[in-house]
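Hi, here's the filled form for the chain we discussed.

Project: internal
Contact: R.S.
Residues: 498
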Amino acid sequence: MTTPLSTRDWHERAGALRYATGHFIDGGHEEARPGQCFVVTNPATGEPLCEVAAGTALDIDRAVASGRRAFKSGVWRRMAPRDRMAVLTRFAGLLSANAERLALLDTLTMGKPISDMLNIDIPSAVQTFTYFAELIDKIDGAVTSTAADAFHYILREPLGVVGCIVPWNYPLLMASWKVAPALAAGNSVVLKPAEQSPLSALVMAELFIEAGGPPGVFNVVNGLGEAVGSALALHMDVNKIAFTGSTEVGKLMLTYAGQSNMKRVSLECGGKSPQIFLSDLGDLDRAVTYAINGIYGNMGEVCNAGSRLLIDRAIADDFIARFVERGRDAYRAGDPLDPATNLGPLVTRSHCARVVSYIETAQREGAKLEFGGSRPALPGSYVNPTLFSGVNSGMTIAREEIFGPVAAAIVVDGLEHALAVANDSIYGLAASVWTRDLNTAHKAVRELEAGVIWVNCFDHGDMTQPFGGYKQSGQGRDKCLESLLGYMQTKSAWIHLG
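And the returned structure, exactly as it came back:
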């Protein structure tokens, strides 16, 4: 049995780590050019980590051209399905074999606890590529019923070049959710990682080549969103943009598609997910545990974080008391390279200041601070887990996405009131309802305006689960068969037999 690594071990490995900091185009790494870089900071220390190439529209042009050449050649899209499946399966295995390296890269750039990387992010990324690899030879066309003098069949074909733009909160995993189905469908990919956490994407592209993937099929261009992200979304030779990020930028993606070539766009954007706790929920302690983890996991930097706690008045006092008792110490800020840490820093100082400003606004607007609301005495951009009670739907913390460890408890009077409060939002990514009544559960599922609904749990699921939202939480779905089909298009062939 392998002995678990200590904090000292992880720091030693982090110190010995070497970074690829350029772009990855046409099958190879490129060096970052002096004077054309941006600084990536370690949010746990506030110190610079490395300098990474700041790409331009010219770099996007080269990456897209590389992807287009590979697509036209057919080296990937015309590869036998079982052979393409074998490449992605080997790729998944290489992600697992490089778990330590990948875990360190995301931990150092965005502050995610190393234990979360090893136990959640990397296994989930491996599962994602394995799942979509297994789907490659399961995609069917169709032959329709026609008159005797005709033969009609429908083909599914890849789109071409797909631009993937991913966020910093799950750098490796969110890239996997976009890249895996795009590649499985036979497309070429240009990946633009978040400037805060760009390093693991370059390793992914390198491992794709090692797995037997053809050069040009998987490219990575680093850079700032306003330069590289917009250039990718506006590019006339990109056939689809797959985006996860803020609602504000998601709207820009739709605009860019219209301004360019009417490319397809799939969006997974912001959320303000309600967790509804009704008076007949049964196991109150279990519900409280899920409520705590649903907002404080990954430092609250989760699109579907259960940030609104809608609690039936009959159980509200007991629920909040238990949440306070167990939630105030459930997540403790610490060194993300310490395997015992479960609350790392927020991704940047500016984001930390933004979260703190929401806490201050909540207090000014009259919400009651139950615990937290402060920053620990650590050098990085940390915020302690925070709970507000006495919140109403008009308050800022009940309406805007905070993207930090801040929970808002709202008292409701029964199911109808809870549904009205839950749906009173521009967002509709996810929601949960806790009840022992089957009729109540089904009614809530039908009435809640969200793309993902959990009953008597939160954040459960597997790769068969479509993940995506209603309203301004976006359009399109990640994970699942539907996601793979979203990276393909149909061609109808009608053959006259007369």
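Let me know if anything looks off before we file it.
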